[in-house]
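Re-run with default settings, no changes from the original entry. Doing this only to confirm the output is reproducible before filing.
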Amino acid sequence: MTADLARYCDHTLLKPEATDADVQAAIAEAAQLGAYSVCLPPSTLPVTVPNTLKLAVVVGFPSGKHHSQIKAAEAALAVSQGADELDMVIDIGAATAGEYDRVEADIRAVRDAAPAPTVLKVIIESAALSDEAIVAVCRAAEAAGADFVKTSTGFHPAGGATVSAVELMRATVGDRLEVKASGGIRTRAAAEAMIAAGATRLGVSSTRAVVEDAETAGDY
């Protein structure tokens, strides 16, 4: 059961103070636990990961307020340095203002810079958006060719993943896209609730605590 839950997990290390030694430790722990991937900042690349792990890299993180050309360049560089998956942050202000065409164009710029088979996850910062905006942004991500919609960076003061947000995202994208829940998932119960709500991937920094059902004060 532990290994099964671990395969939902992107084992994440995104703290600004993370050292090269921390990165190597995170890769080793992800592999040991049987996680699906390790998720890292772009400046940590290139790194070597075991062939049992995918390498995910964040783009435009954590604010999303980067020019689309910069996000595209960051994405292309990450792929050239070995990234299998990209977790990009949308322009949350554009989403809040209802400028969904801008959101779609931003996502499309990254998709064009990193076409399939690179997996593109779109972080929508669901806790900062209305339900209407969540639906519209998920539709924009689908139109732009994304593979996943993802709840949160884990850095926004509005909060992280919620069951209701995951349910709404799943209802919007159906089976056409996958859904990643991230931000504040600290226990097995929380992880299983997100999966039951429709998440097919989880972003967690405390992967060991989650899969071993131990409470932790850590966060994504």
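The first strand starts at residue 9 and ends at 12. Residues 2-211 form a domain with the TIM Barrel fold (CATH 3.20.20.70).
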